[in-house]
Amino acid sequence: MDIDMTQFYLLGELTVLHRGRNCTPSPPMVRKVLAVLMLGANQVIHVDRLIEELWDNSPPMSAVTTVQTYIYQLRRAFEAAGITGPAGEVFVTKRPGYIFVVDPEQIDVQMFHRLAAEGSALLEARKPERAAVVLRQALGLWTGPPLENVALGRLLEAHAVLLAEERLRALELRIQADVMLNRHRELIGELRSLTTVYPLNEWFHGQLMSALSRCGRRGEALDVYRRLHATLNNELGLDPSPELQRMQRNVLRAA
Q1: Under a CB-based contact definition with an 8 Å cutoff, are residues 13 and 148 in contact?
Q2: At a CB cut-off of 8 Å and minimum separation 6, what does 167 contact?
């Protein structure tokens, strides 16, 4: 990212950096309005969506006027910091709401989506080395849970959940790329950590079993299966998927 451009971050704490200076709004409700506008950058965001995010199903009689006040405060703060959009104004009023006008490369979410899509296409084209590089760039944009310093209402909570799922998918694709490059030994530590963070995620457990088995550590691979089996049985009353059961049988035969 160009340091001379204003940068907007959502993949972690919501942050506005202008020429290296933090210009993030401090009032919680103003920050929440900015988050909704940033996630819908360059699209008209209906004022009703902002009201729903701010007050859910119990808006005050003055809701529309209050939203206008928050937009005014954002405009004043950005003008004071010298922040402008590609064509001048950042917050444009357009019925029935507002547009946050910005270059997509200025927002980390937009860059993440572009890089994740590019990495996925490279992997599908059987170019794992380049795919791994691009997907690492996409994942490197994350600094924590999305919108970490914003009190999430219903709409922002839905966005945060979706973004977390998209990050998980990009991580799976990057692991697939590394598997195609035979980086099994290098993946073991990361996969052990991921199976701890996601104890019910069968895909991560299967990748760890595969990596351990390919490195000749079949006993450890079987231990991974046993732990997963116990966790699924105790938590959900389920057995591992047929695919993982076949993998376990293959490891046993190889052992």
Answers
A1: yes
A2: 11, 112, 139, 142
Burial class (CB in 10 A: 0-12, 13-18, 19+), 122: buried
Residue 29, H or E segment: helix 28-39
Q: Are 7 and 108 in contact (CB under 8 A)?
A: yes
- The letter for the amino acid at 128 is P
DSSP code of residue 105: G
What's the pLDDT tens digit per position in 29-70? 999 999 999 999 999 999 999 999 999 989 999 999 999 999
Q: Measuring CA to CA, which residue among 50, 157, 240, 204 is closest to residue 249?
A: 240
Q: pLDDT tens across 201-237, in order?
A: 999 999 999 999 999 999 999 999 999 999 999 999 9
DSSP 181-199: TT-HHHHHHHHHHHHHHST
Q: Which of 145, 124, 148 is nearest to 134 (CA)?
A: 124
- 189's CB contacts (< 8 A; 6+ apart) are none
CA 95 to chain centre: 30
Q: Report the distance separating Cα 233 and Cα 230, nearest Å.
A: 5
Q: How far apart are CA 30 and CA 150, in angstroms?
A: 10
148, 10 contact by CB (below 8 A): no
Residue with tokens 């809701």: 63
User: What's the CA gap between 203 and 66, in Å, rounded?
Assistant: 47
Instruction: Tell me 88's DSSP state.
Output: B
With vertex at residue 249, the alpha carbon angle to CA 248 and CA 255, rounded to the nearest 5 degrees, is 90
